[in-house]
Design brief:
- By secondary structure, the chain is mainly α.
- The chain is built from 20 helices and six strands.
- A three-stranded antiparallel beta sheet has the order 1-2-3.
- The longest helix has 23 residues.
- The chain starts with a strand and ends with a helix.
- The structure holds carboxymethyl coenzyme *A (CMC).
- The site of carboxymethyl coenzyme *A (CMC) has 20 residues, from loops.
């Protein structure tokens, strides 16, 4: 972060002129520092949805939404997908550097050591009703971790930060697989020391006493790629939730649980499941153009799920990778999915339509990933859980960065537009007179 002293914005408020420093980020992004605004003018700013607000300084992830660039700690995601594994990316996000051999060994050891769920917690799974959404099970279970691992005050967690981070990244994977096994009425499969992070997850999901799971290296490679492209996305809704909740010095488990709840919404991580439901609906109907018309119709609540993004005003680089993987993985595995053809037709129709062109609405990360999860055998109600598993290192990295900064409690202001005190006094006055008459 650089502050160019000669660069500032001039603001005139009720005749008083003040200078606001212009902050320039390491990739040239500009921001106006308004941290002294209320002190100097008694005014606040209003920015619903925080469309123009940078909530913090961060060194983790860089996005250029106009050019379609996404980098973790400076590295392009395309490069990371080609050259490293998800666990390396998790380490990179949390620790700031790619691991060397010994760091990678230590990190894997920590992930292994922390992969088991407290046996008493396992019984919790039996008490959720059949059909409970796994995102709800996951957020509940993570919140409950504070009861089983009680060293959760901020100091203890910060003093053992590597363990705290490794535990949450590793154990959530086990919980996700257990939640799935519970939902299909099969016995749980425990994590194995000899398997890599993604292979372990696939094995816990699909192995069974009567049908041993054969781990395919192509499936592991695909899952690594999917996890890498979801691993972080700077101040998105769930990460902001993590930072807001974490700023109250809440323990890491409660903080991550809040992130998972935020992610579950259909406008955020829940969109990958919504995309498949939409594609199936379009496939059954057969008329792509009808749904394009519906998406443009302001009197209809229907939106093209998996399209549009708050930051990307061009093709989402993650969607580009997912689309490429659809061609590659489906061809190599021999799996065919008629929904891929529907998705291609929807994209083609939307991308030549002026409504989508004018509003710069392109496929986002969720448009093609559901097709890939289906190809891996992941059931639809687990799609958002997959997103959550992948996003964990990002949330943990932001939490760690936040507690390392002297960040203040997040507490926005508002502009009150309700009944005035004088109006309320007059109202209550009338009531007391009426009460007296009775
Ligand atoms: N289908 C139809 N119209 C759309 C869509 C869509 N998917 N997305 C945006 N628009 C229109 C919107 O109606 C508005 O039109 P107008 O200017 O005429 O009022 C304009 O485009 C701008 O949309 P917005 O809702 O003001 O933009 P936003 O930045 O607030 O919303 C979004 C971003 C992702 C919530 C939105 O594009 C959307 O609802 N997309 C569908 C849900 C989805 O795919 N979500 C996953 C997002 S990516 C994963 C993640 O990071 O969580």
């Amino acid at each position: 972060m650089n502050q160019a002293p000669e660069n500032y914005a001039l603001l005139t408020v009720e005749g008083k002129e003040i200078q606001l420093p212009l902050i320039i980020g390491s990739e040239g992004e500009k921001g106006i520092d308004i941290s002294g605004l209320r002190r100097d003018t008694s005014c606040v700013t209003i920015d619903p949805g925080f469309m123009n607000t940078a909530s913090c300084y961060s060194q983790i992830t860089y996005i250029d939404g106009e050019k379609g660039i996404l980098r973790y700690r400076g590295y392009d995601i395309q490069e990371l997908c080609k050259k490293v594994m998800f666990v390396d990316v998790a380490y990179l996000l949390v620790h700031g550097e790619l691991p060397g051999e010994s760091e990678r060994r230590n990190f894997s050891r920590q992930l292994n050591l922390n992969s088991m769920i407290h046996e008493d917690m396992r019984r919790f799974f039996d008490n959720f009703p059949q059909g409970a959404h796994p995102m709800c099970i996951l957020s509940t279970m993570i919140n409950a971790m504070a009861a089983f691992y009680p060293q959760v005050d901020l100091k203890s967690m910060a003093d053992n930060i590597d363990d705290s981070c490794a535990r949450v990244i590793s154990i959530v994977r086990t919980m996700a697989a257990f939640a799935y096994k519970k939902s299909i009425g099969e016995p749980v499969v425990y994590p194995r020391q000899d398997l890599s992070y993604c292979a372990n997850f696939l094995n816990m999901m699909f192995d069974s006493p009567v049908r041993p799971y054969v781990i395919s290296p192509e499936a592991v490679r695909l899952l690594n790629t999917l996890f890498i492209i979801h691993a972080d996305h700077e101040q998105n809704c769930s990460t902001s939730a993590v930072r807001v909740i974490g700023s109250a010095q809440v323990n890491l488990y409660a903080t991550i649980s809040a992130g998972i709840s935020a992610l579950s919404g259909p406008l955020h991580g829940g969109a990958n499941q919504a995309v498949i439901e939409m594609l199936r609906m379009i496939q059954e109907d057969g008329d792509v153009e009808k749904f394009i018309r519906l998406a443009k119709d302001k009197s209809s609540p229907f939106r093209l799920m998996g399209f549009g993004h708050r930051v990307y005003k061009t093709y989402d680089p993650r969607a580009e990778i997912a689309k490429m993987e659809c061609e590659k993985y489906l061809a190599s595995s021999g799996y065919t999915d008629p929904l891929l053809d529907v998705a291609r037709r929807v994209e083609e129709a939307a991308r030549k339509d002026s409504y989508f062109i004018d509003r710069q609405l392109y496929p986002n990360v969720d448009f093609y990933t559901g097709i890939l999860y289906r190809a891996l055998g992941i059931p639809e109600n687990m799609f958002t859980v997959m997103f959550a598993l992948a996003r964990l290192p990002g949330w943990v990295a932001h939490w760690k960065e936040m507690i390392g900064d002297s960040t203040k409690l997040v507490r926005p202001r508002q502009i009150y537009m309700g009944r005035t005190g004088d109006e309320a006094k007059r109202e209550i006055e009338k009531r007391s007179i009426a009460a007296h008459l009775i």
